[in-house]
Write a structure and sequence with these properties.
This protein has 185 residues and is mostly helical. 64% of the residues lie in helices and 0% in strands. Helix 2 packs parallel to helix 5, helix 6 packs across helix 7 and helix 6 packs across helix 8.
Length: 185
């Protein structure tokens, strides 16, 4: 092959590579947004604003808990988008809806689920990792850990998550949270 022909094919290959790169750079963001959706946006934004949470925090919990499946049901009976157990539902109901006819079955309704889930998430809103740990393992356990200097220096924020499942959950939520912040600044 002549030098001129080699140069032509090299430039053509380079041009194709640049086009492919630009295509995937543009489409890649759309693919990531499909993987990290903002489904139920009106409910998420309304209740996040009501309870002083970042939208990305609520989306990260929903993504982690149910993958945005409103009919999700866990092995322990947690229901809906934010995977709320019956015991937690009953406790939240006494706080935000004591006289409303809302039932545990209503947690399959995205609005009800997001309303109850964001309320529950709000308690430790000062530190999202601590809030995530409480969301996964319960407020009682997190309150106990906050009293132990091995896990909390200030009694407000956990710096160590001593249980494997809790630790894995917090890291997964934090990863999803970071991705939501990146995609939707």
């Amino acid at each position: 092959m002549s030098r001129r022909r080699k140069r032509f094919w090299l430039l053509a290959l380079l041009a194709v590579c640049v086009c492919v790169f630009l295509f995937f750079a543009r489409v890649g963001g759309n693919i990531e947004r499909a993987i990290y959706p903002r489904t139920y946006r009106a409910y998420v934004e309304y209740y996040a604003d009501k309870y002083g949470l970042e939208y990305a925090q609520v989306y990260a919990i929903i993504k982690t808990e149910s993958g945005f499946k409103p009919n999700a049901l866990s092995g322990v009976g947690a229901r809906g988008l934010m995977q709320i157990t019956e015991e937690t539902f009953e406790w939240i109901k006494t706080k935000i809806a004591p006289s409303e006819p809302v039932t545990f079955d209503d947690l399959y309704d995205p609005e009800v689920n997001i309303r109850f889930g964001t309320y529950y998430l709000d308690r430790y809103a000062g530190d999202f990792a601590t809030a995530s740990a409480a969301y996964h393992s319960g407020q009682g356990l997190v309150d106990q850990l906050l009293e132990d200097t091995r896990y909390s220096a200030d009694g407000v924020t956990l710096h160590t998550f001593p249980y494997e499942q809790m630790n894995l959950y917090v890291h997964k939520v934090q990863r999803n949270y970071a991705k939501y912040q990146e995609l939707y600044p």
